[in-house]
Every structure is written in C-alpha cells, then in structure tokens.
Backbone:
C-alpha cells in the first residue's frame, strides 16, 4: 500500500511540474487556468501575475510581490517591492525598502539585499547592479566581475 501511495505522489509531482498553466485576468483579478480543462488552478485573487518561469510565477497581492507554484501554493510570501521573475540560474532579483538582492526558489537570500538596483542574471551568469551610483556586474555568488 505504501508503495502505491509513493507512486501516486511521484506522479502528482511530475504532473505539477509539466502542467502548462495560462495566466489570466477576470474582473480585475489575476490567476492561472489549466488550458485543457478551463479549471482555475491558481485562484483569481492577485492584483497582477506574470507567467511561470522556472516553476514559479511572480504575483502581486496588496501591492507586494511574491511567488506561487503550479498548485497555487504561495511558496514565497508577497513581501517584496519590486521583484522579478526567476531565471534559469534559479535566482530572482527582489527588493525590500529600496535595497535589492537575489533569492532562490525557497525564498532564501543568496545575494544580500544591499544594492540600489538589481534585475536578473543574463546567459553568462552576470547581473547588472547599481550601488551608490555605480553600475557593475556581479556573478552568481555576488562577486564583482568585469
């Protein structure tokens, strides 16, 4: 019996990872639909939502940004303003009280929120940041690079 439950759980995890959801708006609220069934998978409670990127979608609630997974679970609370979608690096730029840095997909701060501006990592694994009026690039560990 335990083996059957394990297989069902694995199948559910795989389905949620491969499931394609469509961001949609209804009466001024945003959520996500399963395009095959039309079912609302992520409830229409958000002020805005971006498409899924690396298994998480950026959503805004009460003026703050956070991230949901494909089951509709709020994985990272809406505490950032502003925030950006995750890139293939597994990191996303987020800001709190005017200071920006990068978090991973669990919400853990990987590169401290010390920058005045930060956006995303490019294909070369570099992110442009700004600190005290100076713009430069950092690597995935937060080290300054050329």
Residues:
């Amino acid at each position: 019996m335990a083996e059957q439950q394990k297989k069902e759980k694995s199948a559910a995890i795989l389905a949620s990872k491969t499931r394609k959801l469509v961001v949609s708006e209804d009466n001024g609220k945003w959520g996500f639909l399963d395009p095959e069934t039309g079912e609302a998978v992520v409830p229409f409670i958000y002020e805005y939502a971006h498409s899924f990127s690396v298994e998480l979608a950026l959503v805004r609630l009460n003026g703050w940004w956070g991230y949901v997974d494909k089951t509709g679970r709020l994985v990272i609370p809406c505490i950032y303003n502003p925030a950006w979608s995750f890139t293939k690096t597994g990191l996303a730029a987020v800001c709190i009280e005017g200071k920006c840095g990068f978090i991973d997909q669990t919400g853990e701060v990987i590169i401290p929120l010390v920058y005045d501006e930060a956006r995303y990592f490019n294909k070369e694994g570099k992110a442009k940041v700004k600190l005290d009026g100076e713009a430069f690039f950092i690597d995935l560990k937060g080290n300054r690079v050329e």
About this structure: Residues 2-18 form the longest helix (17 residues). Confidence is low (pLDDT under 50) at residues 7-15. Residues 92 and 123 are 14 Å apart (CA to CA). Helices lie at 2-18.
